[in-house]
């Protein structure tokens, strides 16, 4: 876990279904001075103990170097505890949770997750596959569907791109805001 601004970020796993060219998960795994490399995945109780009072943070963020929906049950259990203790939650994801879990997971997150941030990365499925080193068409389409369902379900949905050469920021903004109905944000490349 690490704190940025007034949010507490929970790194549940270093496992991921993607291998993004811009991700340092297999390298030093350091963001803003925080080492995100974990040697073992924390238990739900260990995470809860580390959080303490969730109301002292703007939100508790499930993130990674790794895909938090790989540990969907842990996300749900910790979120339930956070909500019972009047805290707010956010899921930072690649939007592949439905593929990973082989079902639509969004209904399972209702009442547990307050905000969702999805990594769009690019608007082209082939480029998406190249950036994430996965089956671009399959995963891009699944991510877009996850985003559309999230917008129908949650009031706070953001989609992000990393500022990389070859990513059309204007096209990404139009896709996110006009076609999906989410908030758009460009992130710096670390």
Record the strand order, biggest sheet.
Answer: 1-2-5-6-7-8-9
Please count the helical segments: 7
The CATH architecture comes to: Alpha-Beta Barrel
| Strand content bin | 15-25%
- Show unreliable segments: none
Please count the beta strands (DSSP E, at least 2 residues each): 9
Specify Rg, calculated over alpha carbons.
Answer: 16 Å
Defining traits:
190 residues, alpha/beta, TIM Barrel, seven-stranded mixed beta sheet, two-stranded antiparallel sheet, 7 helices, 36% helix, globular
Give a short synopsis of this structure.
By secondary structure, the chain is an alpha/beta fold. It has helices spanning 44-51, 72-84, 97-101, 106-109, 125-132, 136-153, 169-180, and strands at 2-4, 7-11, 30-31, 34-35, 59-63, 89-93, 115-119, 156-162, 183-187.
3D architecture notes:
This protein has 190 residues and is an alpha/beta fold. The chain has a single domain (2-187), classed as TIM Barrel (Alpha-Beta Barrel), CATH 3.20.20.70. Helices cover 36% and strands 21% of the residues. It is built from seven helices and nine strands; from the N terminus they run ββββαβαβααβααβαβ. The protein has helices at 44-51, 72-84, 97-101, 106-109, 125-132, 136-153, 169-180; strands at residues 2-4, 7-11, 30-31, 34-35, 59-63, 89-93, 115-119, 156-162, 183-187. The strands form two sheets. A seven-stranded mixed β-sheet has the order 1-2-5-6-7-8-9, with helices on one face. A two-stranded antiparallel sheet has the order 3-4. Helix 1 runs parallel beside helix 2 (72-84) and helix 5 packs across helix 6. The chain is globular and about 40 Å long. The chain starts with a strand and ends with a strand.
């Amino acid at each position: 876990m690490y704190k940025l601004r007034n949010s507490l970020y929970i790194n549940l796993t270093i496992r991921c279904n993607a291998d993004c060219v811009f991700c340092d998960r297999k390298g030093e795994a350091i963001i803003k001075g925080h080492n995100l490399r974990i040697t073992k995945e924390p238990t739900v109780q260990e995470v809860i103990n580390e959080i303490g009072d969730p109301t002292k943070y703007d939100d508790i963020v499930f993130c990674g170097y790794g895909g938090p929906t790989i540990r969907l049950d842990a996300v749900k259990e910790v979120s339930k505890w956070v909500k019972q203790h009047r805290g707010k939650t956010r899921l930072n994801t690649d939007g592949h949770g439905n593929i990973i879990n082989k079902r639509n997971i969004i209904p399972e997150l209702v009442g547990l997750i307050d905000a969702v941030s999805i990594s769009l990365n690019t608007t082209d499925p082939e480029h998406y596959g190249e950036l994430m080193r996965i089956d671009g068409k399959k995963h891009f389409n699944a991510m877009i569907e996850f985003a559309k369902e999230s917008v129908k379900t949650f009031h706070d949905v953001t989609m992000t791109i990393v500022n990389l050469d070859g990513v059309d920021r204007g096209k990404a903004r139009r896709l996110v805001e006009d076609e999906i109905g989410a908030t758009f944000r460009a992130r710096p490349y670390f």
